[in-house]
Amino acid sequence: MLRTSLGCQAALHFGALLTVSIGTSACVGNQVKSGVDPSTGLVADTVTFEAIVRSVQPAAGQVFRVDPRPFLSDSGTVSVQDARVRADTMGLGARLRVLARRGVDVADASVFSSCTNAVAAPGEDMPSVGCPAVRTLVVMVGRSRPTLPPGTYDRAGQPRDARSRQTVRMIETNAAPTAATAIAYDVLVGWTNQRWQVLSRRPVFFDG
């Protein structure tokens, strides 16, 4: 449940799994120019997170939700369960503010784990146990990692900023009243045309 008031007062509850509250004082932070924090030189998590959320195109009539918990975006994360194990709350408040500003609701991506490969009886109108009543798309977005190693040069022999390309592991769950599938992607996010945008998505694992 996401609750907002007075701009940034928010709370997120995932049952006994997670409870996070963000006060209005969390709204005050350093401005990040072009998505790079000048104090650390690192790409801010929220800019790659928002670029991916902005790029998601749900199907007609499909409910769209985001599980905002950040997780380690490495090659070993290929499922919602993997992402949950590697998740933490660092930066969660900033992600919640992005979702609130964009009007996107939150959800726990693991709630449909028992829906995978469920089979409905012939003529059954009710959703199978663990499945949603309507088609639902839930995504989890990991933390970014640089795609270009330091010392990379372009064709003209000019040094490339390793921060200009970031790879992010995303877990996408498509749940229907009778079954659910999950796909893990490596998403390439880059700074282009004066904004961070998704440049490509490469599926790396399919479950269901």
Provide a descriptive summary of the structure in words.
There is one protein chain. The chain is of the alpha+beta class and 208 residues long. It is built from three helices and ten strands; from the N terminus they run E-E-E-H-E-H-H-E-E-E-E-E-E. Strands 4, 5, 6, 7, 8, 9 and 10 form a seven-stranded mixed sheet that branches. Strands 1-2-3 form a three-stranded antiparallel sheet, with helices on one face. Helix 1 packs parallel to helix 3. It is globular.
The total of helices stands at 3
As residue ranges, the low-confidence spans are 1-33
Largest sheet: 7 strands, mixed
Rg over C-alpha atoms, rounded to the nearest angstrom: 18 Å
Structural class given helices, strands, pairing? alpha+beta
Q: What average pLDDT do the residues reach?
A: 76
Features:
7-stranded mixed β-sheet; disordered N terminus; alpha+beta; globular; about 15% helix; 3-stranded antiparallel β-sheet; about 210 residues
Q: Can I get a quick summary?
A:
This protein has about 210 residues and is of the alpha+beta class. Helix content is about 15%, strand content about 30%.
List the helices and strands and how they pair.
Blueprint (H helix, E strand, L loop, with lengths): L1 E4 L3 E6 L3 E5 L22 H11 L7 E5 L12 H6 L6 H11 L2 E2 L29 E6 L3 E2 L18 E11 L4 E13 L2 E13 L1
Parallel strand pairs: 4-5, 4-6
Antiparallel strand pairs: 1-2, 2-3, 6-8, 7-8, 8-9, 9-10
